[in-house]
Write a structure and sequence with these properties.
The strands form three sheets. Strands 3, 4, 5, 6, 7, 14 and 15 form a seven-stranded mixed β-sheet that branches. The protein has a six-stranded parallel β-sheet with strand order 10-9-8-11-12-13, with helices on both faces. The chain is built from nine helices and 15 strands. α2 packs across α3 and α2 packs across α8. The protein is α/β, with parallel strands linked by helices. About 50% of the residues are buried. Bound molecules: NADPH dihydro-nicotinamide-adenine-dinucleotide phosphate.
């Protein structure tokens, strides 16, 4: 037996309960991982509430973790018991141990601690694909990052700055403004008090941005489109404030022949070779010191509900990890 957070019915943070569960044997192509740290992500709240579907109830939330391989299933040759690994995968991570498909697992370099790995697989790989695959930023580009002091936000801003961009970030408070500036933001806009599109026009002298990376959703749409140059890219990758409602696609023409995309990490990592290449790129920028993974909150596994309350209450910065 081992401990895991279980959700028997969708709802608020209180539906996450720590229980004893039987540890299954890994099947073909699977590995059993003993977690040393588990990442908390906004997407976990969507699965908890039922906004994103789960295969069946009860289920264990959580989509990323780091730890050691305990055992491997038939056909797994890339990993062996004792290996240090990290992964991003479907729900099941808020647990002392979990089964995960080996195709989502990568070897962890010795100099990357478990906490760092658990905090960066989902968030860091998201920053990787947004900056290197969805819209490939170049030196001299000006970009807008919403929720710049958040988990994905702080990684995106540091990495974009290292790639030579001018980074404008939106933040929900003065404390977050300071943090964003310390992590790659050339300009921080407190979007709860200021009209961010007006501020972007002022900051850029009406030149505007090549790309907007938006994980906030409803609250920042359609104003984000007003921050883009003609032919600019609106990359909507999340909806922390609620989903963007259906809109007239002609809006993109009227705002300057814009591009809009709604990418997800899981499409990018469906190809194992792509996952490994993305992880190599992420590990390289972290090991070089160009991107620091901001673990700002550490909680015991049993405190998953507290972690979700803080995340949904906009009280967190950077990443939160659960320690089993
Ligand atoms: P964050 O740490 O960024 O937390 C969410 C932040 O959103 C808050 O801290 C807050 O920052 C901001 N926010 C704005 N409005 C609201 C609101 N009404 N309620 C709550 N928060 C609000 O979370 P993550 O880094 O885990 O994820 C960021 C976004 O990226 C999420 O939307 C997530 O779903 C998405 N995501 C998408 C992926 C993909 O592949 N598509 C993969 C990974 C994440 P502030 O106070 O500064 O406004």
């Amino acid at each position: 037996m081992s401990k895991a957070i279980r959700v028997h019915a969708h709802g608020g943070p209180e539906v996450m309960i720590l229980e004893d569960v039987a540890t299954p044997e890994p099947g073909p192509g699977q590995v059993l991982v003993r977690h040393r740290a588990v990442g908390v992500n906004y997407i976990d709240t969507y699965f908890r509430t039922g906004a994103y579907p789960v295969a069946s109830l009860p289920f264990t939330p959580g989509n990323e973790g780091a730890g050691e391989i305990v055992s491997v299933g038939e056909g797994v040759v890339s990993f062996k018991p004792g290996d240090h690994v990290a992964y991003v995968a479907g729900p099941g991570s808020y647990a002392e141990e979990r089964i995960v498909d080996a195709k989502f697992v990568v070897s962890l370099p010795d100099d990357i601690p478990y906490e760092t790995a658990a905090a960066m697989m989902l968030k860091g790989l998201t920053a990787q694909y947004l900056l290197r695959r969805t819209f490939k930023v170049e030196p001299g580009h000006t970009i807008l990052v919403h929720a710049a002091a958040g988990g994905v936000g702080l990684i995106l801003c540091q990495w974009a700055k290292a790639l030579g961009c001018t980074v404008i970030g939106t933040v929900g408070s003065r404390d977050k403004e300071k943090l964003a500036r310390e992590n790659g933001c050339d300009h921080a806009i407190r979007y709860r008090e200021e009209d961010f599109a007006t501020r972007v026009k002022e900051i850029t002298g009406n030149a505007l941005c090549e790309v907007v990376y938006d994980g906030v959703g409803r609250a920042t749409f359609p104003a984000s489109l007003d921050c883009l140059k003609p032919f600019g890219m609106f990359a909507s990758f999340g909806s922390a404030s609620g989903a963007i409602e259906a809109f007239d696609i002609g809006l993109l023409a009227r705002k300057g022949s814009l591009y809009a995309t709604r990418p997800t990490l899981f499409t990018h990592i469906a190809d194992r070779d792509v996952l490994v290449a993305m992880a190599d790129d992420l590990f390289a920028v972290v090991r070089s010191g160009q991107v620091k993974i901001p673990v700002h909150s550490r909680l015991p596994l049993a405190s998953a509900a507290e972690a979700h309350r803080a995340l949904e209450g906009r009280a967190t910065t950077g990443a939160t990890v659960l320690l089993p």
